[in-house]
Amino acid sequence: MGYQVLARKYRPQRFADVAGQDHVTRTLLNALSQNRVAHGYIFSGHRGIGKTTIARIVAMAVNCHAEIGSPQRPTPEPCGVCDSCVEIRQGNAVDVIEIDAATNRGIDEIRELRDAARYSPARDRYKIYILDEAHQITEAAFNALLKTLEEPPAHVIFMMATTEPENIPQTIRSRCQHFSFHAVKFDDILAQLKMIAEQEEIAAEDGALALLAEAGDGSMRDALSIMDQAIASAPVESGRPELSAAQIRELMGSVPNTVFEHMLEAVAAGQSAALMEQLNTLVNAGHSPSSLARQLVRYLRNTLMAKLGGEHTELLQISSDERARAARTALLFSEEELTRNLQITLRTFDDLNYRQEQRFHLELGLLKLIHAQRLLPVEELLSGIASGAPLPSTSRHASSPSRSAPASAAPAAPSISPFASPPSRTAAPEPKLSATPSPVAAPATPSAVAPFPAAASPAPAFAAMRTEGALAVAPEPGAPPAGEVDAESLRPAIAAALAAGGHASAGQLLATAAFVLNGSALRIEVPGVGKKMLSLTFNAAAEKIIRQELQRLAAPARFMIVPGEGSASAIAPAAAPLAGSMHDAALAHPLVQRAKEIFNAEIRSVVDLRQK
Fold it and tell me: What average pLDDT score do residues 397-401 get?
């Protein structure tokens, strides 16, 4: 016999061998043991996850010549050695008829099937019809099968496999037991690939098998097909093919996720030139813009899931190294920023499908990611009023002057937005209401009245633009540029604001942090503290307080908190250090004491996260 591909060679022959479909196999085994086999089944789900395979196993189980509980067959699993099991496994059983419904989809074929179903099986207990791609059957053909499927002969079982169950008429679905198959998990595919690599005597790196499992995208058959192709292209050493991650990436035309990590670091730092240089290197290496956009979308999705659920969340079906990489990138952005970046990248990917100059559109989409970092949510901008920042003029109703405005009010300077259209050369004597509301905020006029009192202390003015529910904030022409702000002078104000807002621990950590201005972003390096400690201390509420304080101080609203160099002993807390062991220090902390009072808690262990 010639070569047999891995997907056929390692096709499961028992319910226990099917990976990732425990809810289906458990139900079918119980039905077999209780002799409650239905006359019609619908198996639906993703491609290559075992629908037709389980249909064959059910056919073997119901037609197996060995009785359940006998020495040859102690469980409802088929024995696999009787004539019926062997013929069904080989695909030449007389009483098990597999029909490709994609080609035999008409009413004439279904009428022949219906007439043949009246006759008893030639040898086995049941005559079984397996209809693959059943959703391709026409509506007239389904109607011809309807009566037979509702009241079939006692010796007939229908099993339909489909990837689109919604295209099967409800009258058919209501007469069958419907099993919805799940996509196979990453860990299950990886375990199967490792087993096959051992059986085939293939030297494969863990990273290579992880790439194959991820490329399967929930389909076991897809992963095995790519593995077959990878083995054929792999170099042979000492008679054994060797699979490496670099070889598989080259085979699939993919890019290492390290590249996308560096690209998003450039986005977080606002480095447009560096981002374009990285893209230019990838395109010159032969990678298509559409493929790059697809991989960037997937990486951004994994980064967002790592931000939501942490590095070890079940939402990430990737290897441990990729989990750590996604978690590192998630530290650079907030949840809202990652959501916005994913939306921009998805829209760019959709645009590439019907654009001729794909590279230009991909470059534009990546530049939009950098420009979007200047956008702030409306609630964050408005919340700065309480700390002394003025409310930007965003009124769209300026058609008539306000009667309550003082007559001596001086007109405010018009706001300049980088996204606004160039001003008209002919100055209008008074503002007019446009028939279509402009997305750019109108400049403040003598007739506009601020709904909040002006702040006592001078604060920088901002120009605002409303775009998809967000406000882009840019300094007014008279405001001091961000580069003139002394980064080190921001520390005491931010630490005091955190302490006043109930985040004393975060304020103490910032007491020895290094504040560095990197272009339009502020980098805060906290020495002696690990990433876990930072994520626990600087939560969303603390980040909001820092952003508001930076806005009040006319500093860049974009900031990043990362672990810095130095030991834990270099951190000098604002309060006097507590004597005794770490456990005693934790018990004496006022936050811990307050938590014990509220929740009636008990401290059993203390873990130092500063060096992790």
Answer: 37
pLDDT at 468 over 60: no
Q: What is the pLDDT at residue 418?
A: 43
Q: Which fold has domain 6-180?
A: Rossmann fold (3.40.50)
The domain over range 257-376 is classified in CATH as 1.20.272.10: yes
Q: How far apart are CA 561 and CA 30, in angstroms?
A: 55
The phi and psi torsions of 314 (rounded to 5 degrees) equal -75, -10
Output DSSP code: residue 183: P
- Please name the helix (run of DSSP H) or strand (run of DSSP E) that holds residue 606, with its range, or none: none
Domain ranges of the chain: 6-180, 186-252, 257-376, 486-599
Report how far residue 309's alpha carbon sits from residue 6's, in angstroms, rounded to the nearest whole number. 35
Cα–Cα dist 306/327, whole Å: 5
For 50-136, list the strands marked E by DSSP. Answer: 96-100, 127-132
Please, is 577 exposed, middle or buried when counting C-beta atoms within 10 Å of its C-beta (0-12, 13-18, 19+)?
A: exposed
Q: Which residues pair with 131 in a beta bridge?
A: 99, 160
Asked if 293 contacts 349 with a C-beta cutoff of 8 angstroms, the reply is yes
8 Å CB contact between 461 and 390: yes
Reduced to 3 states (helix: H, G, I; strand: E, B; else coil), residue 63 is helix
Pick from 131, 139, 119, 141: which is nearest to 176 by CA? 131
Q: What's the length of the chain? A: 612
- CATH number of the structural domain 186-252: 1.10.8.60
Cβ 258 vs Cβ 328: under 8 Å: no
- Alpha helices by DSSP H, listed for 450-564, are 490-500, 504-510, 531-537, 540-552
Residues forming a β-bridge with 462: 475
Q: Does the structure show a pLDDT above 50 at 450? A: no
Q: List the 521-527 sheet strands across, edge first.
A: 514-518, 521-527, 558-564
Report how far apart the first and last C-alpha atoms of the chain are (Å, whole number): 56
Strand ranges of the sheet holding 156-162, from the earlier edge strand across to the other edge: 96-100, 127-132, 156-162, 40-44, 177-180
Distance CA 375, CA 465 (A): 9
Contact criterion met (CB below 8 Å) for 547 and 380: yes
- Per-residue model confidence as pLDDT tens digits over 159-195: 999 999 999 999 999 999 999 999 999 999 999 999 9
pTM of the model: 0.59
Nearest Cα neighbor of 397 from 474, 451, 460, 476 is 451
| Residue 172, phi then psi, degrees to nearest 5 | -80, -45
CB 366 within 8 Å of CB 274: no
Rounded to whole angstroms, how far apart are CA atoms 344 and 333? 15
Please state the φ and ψ torsions of residue 157, each to the nearest 5 degrees.
Answer: -130, 130
Rounded-to-integer distance, Cα 119 and Cα 56, Å: 21
DSSP state of 386: G
Amino acid (1-letter code) at residue 550: L
DSSP state of 523: E
Q: Which tokens go with 180?
A: 């919805």
Distance CA 470, CA 380 (A): 10
The whole-angstrom separation of Cα 127 and Cα 111 is: 16
531-546 pLDDT, tens digit per residue, is: 777 777 888 888 888 8
